[in-house]
Amino acid sequence: MKYHDVTVNLAGLQLANPTVLASGILGYSKETLENIVKGGAGAVVTKSVGQKPREGYPNPTVVQASCGLINAMGLPNPGIDEYVKEFRRTEAAGLNVPLIFSVYGFSMEEYTAVVKKAVAAGADAVELNVSCPHVKDTGSEIGQCPETLAKVVKDVKASVSRPVFVKLSPNVTSIADVAEVAVEAGADGLTVMNTVKAMAIDVETAMPILGHRVGGLSGPAIKPAALRCVYDVYERVKVPIMGCGGIMDWRDAVEFLLAGASAVQMGTAVSFKGPNVFRSVALGIERYLRNKHFEKVEEIVGLSHRK
User: What CATH code is assigned to 4-305?
Assistant: First the structure.
């Protein structure tokens, strides 16, 4: 099914609709991504991959909260060299939607090296994970340091010709300030936002449940915070924003579009509702546009900022 009136241009990427698979959910293989595309996603983001293999944290790595999920996976991945073998097959088969590689590193050199290999493997764009809240010396440590973030973005932009998105952390004093730094350094777009630092404790054992103790909260609980972050960032920068955080249905998605997002990423919603949630949300957006007499998605992007 094609959604002609909900197509979007995201920093040069052509999406049939503004729904995108968030990093970390079923972005492991060609088969899982194909399943997401069949479910209606307009684009997909892979799991985060680094330069070297990483086992991640011991179990349990995910706990369900009453308001979402708390995870501390620890960025498990086989390393970029092994990982791209899978996606060279994907490129040959063709997903027919933009493929965005999520990349992390422990240094500027690692980010650049991994991004180059991702693009060579067929990535249509890259998303820099500078916001993981539970892995030391990568992720949020980089995203919370303006100088380091600017250097990473500049180096990556200078090394590839594909669009570069930066995934921002909410665990900062001002996400809008960080957004400005990323855009001034050359980011083509932003993903707003990553998970919020959180934990759960077992009252019987009196111990934290997660193997790593602290993880990142996703799902409905963080939606109001994510929506505010998108709203704030939209006021400060002029690049496309992918809204992310607690989007479970079309109403949530429309709120993010009105706040300033050009597209929306979903992850926890897939865990709760399955891959067809993308088609459901896209159809809901289409109905909203029709009922409100808008012709294109771009007509409602940032509409809540009217004075």
Answer: 3.20.20.70
